[in-house]
Amino acid sequence: MKKILYSAFVLLFLTSCVTNKQLTYFQGDPVEQTEITKLNNEPYRMQVNDILYIDIKGNNPEIISMFKSSETSGTTSNQGGTLYFNGYSVDRHGNIRIPYIGDLNVLGYTAKEVREKIELELAKFFKNPEQIFVTVKLAGIQFVVTGEVGSPGTISLMQNQVSIVDALANAGEITEVGDRKNVTIIRKSLDGVKKFKLDMTNMEVFNSENFYIQPNDILYVAPLKQKSLGTGTTAFQTFSTVVTVLSFLASTVLLIKNL
Q1: From CA 166, how far away is CA 181, in angstroms rounded?
Q2: pLDDT number for residue 169
Q3: Spatial distance between the Cα atoms of 149 and 223, rounded to a whole number of angstroms
Q4: Cα dihedral sign, 237-241-247-253
Q5: What pTM did the predictor assign?
Q6: 25, 87, 208, 252: which has the fewest Cβ within 10 Å?
Q7: Across the chain, where does the E strand assignment appear?
């Protein structure tokens, strides 16, 4: 009986606590590339609920101001939540609404293509359209992080690119019971919903095609099995839990023998 209890103690102890290897990011050495690899730099295509920052400049500010919403006219700030009210939101039909131009479909278009469409529409109102300068940018990148992270929720970063490292760092990092080998990106695109898995403990994550996330991505960090076992994340916590369980078993065995 003692041998059985001892074996169970050792086995449970070794398999229950979170090891240092499970907590360490970017293990291994970078692999030197012998060939030129294609980077995943495909331009982002607009989706429903995206918010665009659009600025129009020209040599006649009074006429130009007619094509700006009253909120954005003269506004230079695009920080924080300002663009939620002042930007151009893509509605459920894939349109943005610009004064005097009306609804303009941008669903599935890149920022460059949207700019060209706006310039084409503005050319109908100006004798010298080449003097009009249009800027179109995605108003930051918004995404959701859930699962085993310090601060789950919706995050919006005013950056042109957001890596998986940026995203997790802004979500309070992966907790001690989060599985760094099982970080899932859920992405809804024009082709449907897709899932991608990343191993944050492997240095090769920097070469992944999904190292940079896209707007409206959902990041999910799965829990380690230690969480479901409830044995603790450190050796001391696991030891305390195992001792409690074995003490209960020993007491039960002695009670049965004395009956």
Answers
A1: 17
A2: 96
A3: 10
A4: negative
A5: 0.71
A6: 252
A7: 51-57, 88-89, 95-98, 102-105, 133-138, 141-147, 153-157, 162-163, 178-189, 192-198, 212-213, 218-223
**Strands, E assignment, 73-132:** 88-89, 95-98, 102-105
Is 68 buried (19+), middle (13-18) or exposed (0-12) by CB count in 10 A?
A: middle
Residue type, 63: I
Contact call for residues 22 and 180 (beta carbons, < 8 A): yes
List C-alpha distances in Å: 202 to 28, 31, 206, 226, 234: 7, 11, 9, 21, 22
d(CA 184, CA 226): 19
Structure tokens at 40: 């995943």
What string of pLDDT tens digits covers the 259 residues of the chain? 555 545 554 555 445 566 777 778 878 777 666 555 555 567 889 999 899 999 999 888 888 888 886 554 444 444 556 777 788 999 999 999 999 999 999 999 999 999 999 999 999 988 888 889 999 999 889 999 999 999 999 999 988 889 999 999 999 999 999 999 999 999 988 788 999 999 999 999 999 989 999 999 999 999 998 766 555 555 555 555 555 656 666 667 666 776 6
What is the distance between the alpha carbons of residues 194 and 213, in angstroms, rounded to a whole number? 13
- Describe the strand order of the beta sheet including 133-138 as a list of residue ranges: 88-89, 51-57, 133-138
H-helix or E-strand containing 162? strand 162-163
Whole-angstrom Cα distance, residue 132 to residue 54? 13
3-class secondary-structure state, position 252 = helix
Instruction: State the first-to-last Cα distance of the chain, in angstroms, to the nearest integer.
Output: 18
Q: How far apart are CA 172 and CA 155, in angstroms?
A: 11
